[in-house]
Design a protein that fits this description.
By secondary structure, the protein is of the alpha+beta class. It has a domain of 110 residues: Alpha-D-Glucose-1,6-Bisphosphate, Chain A, domain 4 (2-Layer Sandwich). Helix content is 24%, strand content 49%. The protein is built from three helices and seven strands, in the order βααββββββα. The chain has a seven-stranded antiparallel sheet, covered by helices on one side. The protein is globular. The termini are far apart.
Length: 158
């Protein structure tokens, strides 16, 4: 007798804010220019990338696919749905782990000049499939990604 796995769909919304001591233009380049983005997004030493592409335009796609050392294969596929230069980036993206679709999300990155730098606000709404804890893990993961962005900007401020 086989058992059918329990299926669930768990929504999760979160907002992360970080202020960086750089100009809006500098942060925009870090988010949008291929070489800049590659320096902090998905550049973990313990990740072997098999497919990486970044087509920054409305309708363009970004793909990051690879395997964590001693771990699962991860696939991220995003489509840019709205871009307002130096102001916001909106994407819709899907994630797979070992070929299993785990989530579909919409994300907005908003840049606002503030005294001493620029505030980045990330708003995300996701539907996590068959993993009630997936949203909380995603939120923690994006906190780490923003830490990597901060380190990159600190080491290369202009």
């Amino acid at each position: 007798m086989t058992t059918t796995p329990e299926r669930s769909e768990t929504p999760h919304t979160f907002v992360l804010e970080r202020t960086f001591p750089v100009t809006v233009d500098r942060l925009w380049r870090a988010l949008t220019v291929d070489e800049e983005r590659a320096a902090w997004f998905g550049s973990e030493e313990n990740f072997d990338a098999d497919e990486v592409s970044h087509d920054f335009r409305v309708g363009g796609r970004t793909v990051d696919d690879g395997r964590w050392h001693d771990g699962p294969r991860s696939r991220y596929v995003a489509t840019y749905t709205d871009i307002v230069d130096l102001v916001r980036i909106v994407i819709s993206y899907d994630m797979w782990i070992d070929g299993v679709h785990i989530s579909t999300s919409t994300q907005c990155l908003r840049l606002d000049p503030v005294d001493g730098g620029v505030r980045l606000t990330q708003t995300e709404q996701g539907l996590h499939l068959d993993d009630p804890e997936g949203g909380a893990m995603r939120e923690t993961g994006f906190g780490s990604i923003l830490d990597a962005l901060a380190s990159h900007l600190e080491s290369s401020p202009s």
